[in-house]
């Protein structure tokens, strides 16, 4: 029986899709609208203003927490790029006893609940008498960031032609030269995509940071949680809108890098 490729989808599919998008994005739309509310109370609209965005830029507590979050995310991602990339390459290119077990343990932080990682990290620091500070937050975030980067780089490695490295070695290149000049340039899109994903996850983390942060090293999610105990103000709404836009920009950039890498691989 011939199938009509141009048939229209049933009405219920369009209705279901519309309800799904309303469920997902209506709260964000309401948040964005009330970030321009003149009133300090989110439940009552009294007029349009941009003052809350200016108030956020003058809030030293939130700006200090934002600086801590950026320091933690950038440091954890920088360390994770090196370790995660080497881990993915080692798993893909070398054979050694216990490789399957090592692979499973390497990606375990992806499925272990955050609360377990937070408690385990806190107990470890207490056992070795390491004082809590922003350094301990960076170490804790590196645990899950390197797993995400290694996973993305591994998926990139599975689509590459391994004969290119072999050809470079046959032409006289050392293993280090073959890695730097042949393999690494092909891995750059996967590394950048994984790094952007890990950066967003680190900026968004609240649970692990709240267990491992010391005095004066509170991150932005922790500062927001402390602020909303007395109620959600339009200033927090404005900050949330800025974070959503920044996350969307980073996600779009990661997708663009991944797409350009796929196009380059096809050519």
Provide structural commentary.
- The two termini are 39 Å apart.
- With 267 residues, the protein is an all-alpha fold.
- It has 11 helices and no strands.
- The mean pLDDT is 84.
- It is globular, with a radius of gyration of 23 Å.
- It has helices at residues 11-34, 51-57, 60-93, 99-106, 114-127, 134-158, 163-170, 175-204, 207-212, 220-227, 234-266.
The rough form would be described as globular
Helical content stands at: over 70%
User: Rg from C-alpha positions?
Assistant: 23 Å
Question: Can you count the helices?
Answer: 11
Keywords:
267 residues; globular
What's the arrangement of secondary structure elements?
Elements (H helix, E strand, L loop, with lengths): L10 H24 L16 H7 L2 H34 L5 H8 L7 H14 L6 H25 L4 H8 L4 H30 L2 H6 L7 H8 L6 H33 L1
Helix pairs in contact: 1-11, 2-11, 3-6, 3-8, 3-10, 6-8, 7-8, 8-11
Give me a quick take on this structure:
With 267 residues, the protein is an all-alpha fold. It has 11 helices and no strands.
């Amino acid at each position: 029986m011939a199938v009509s490729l141009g048939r229209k989808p049933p009405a219920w599919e369009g209705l279901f899709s519309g309800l799904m998008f309303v469920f997902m994005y209506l709260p964000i739309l309401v948040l964005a609208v009330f970030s321009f509310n003149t009133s300090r109370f989110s439940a009552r609209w009294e007029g349009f203003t941009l003052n809350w965005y200016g108030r956020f830029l003058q809030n030293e507590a939130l700006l200090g927490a934002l600086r801590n979050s950026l320091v933690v995310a950038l440091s954890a991602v920088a360390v994770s790029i090196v370790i995660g990339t080497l881990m993915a390459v080692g798993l893909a290119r070398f054979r050694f006893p216990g490789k399957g077990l090592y692979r499973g343990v390497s990606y375990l932080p992806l499925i272990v609940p955050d609360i377990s990682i937070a408690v385990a990290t806190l107990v470890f620091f207490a056992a070795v008498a390491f004082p809590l500070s922003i350094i301990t937050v960076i170490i804790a975030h590196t645990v899950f960031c390197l797993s995400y980067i290694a996973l993305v780089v591994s998926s990139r490695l599975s689509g590459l032609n391994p004969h290119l490295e072999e050809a470079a070695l046959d032409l006289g290149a050392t293993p280090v030269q073959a890695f730097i000049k042949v393999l690494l340039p092909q891995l750059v899109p996967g590394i950048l995509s994984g790094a952007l994903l890990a950066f967003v996850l680190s900026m968004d983390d609240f649970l692990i940071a709240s267990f491992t942060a010391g005095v004066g090293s509170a991150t932005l999610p922790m500062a927001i949680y402390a602020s909303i105990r007395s109620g959600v103000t339009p200033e927090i709404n404005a900050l949330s809108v800025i974070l959503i836009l920044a996350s969307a920009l980073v996600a779009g950039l990661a997708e663009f890098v991944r797409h350009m890498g796929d196009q380059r691989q096809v050519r």
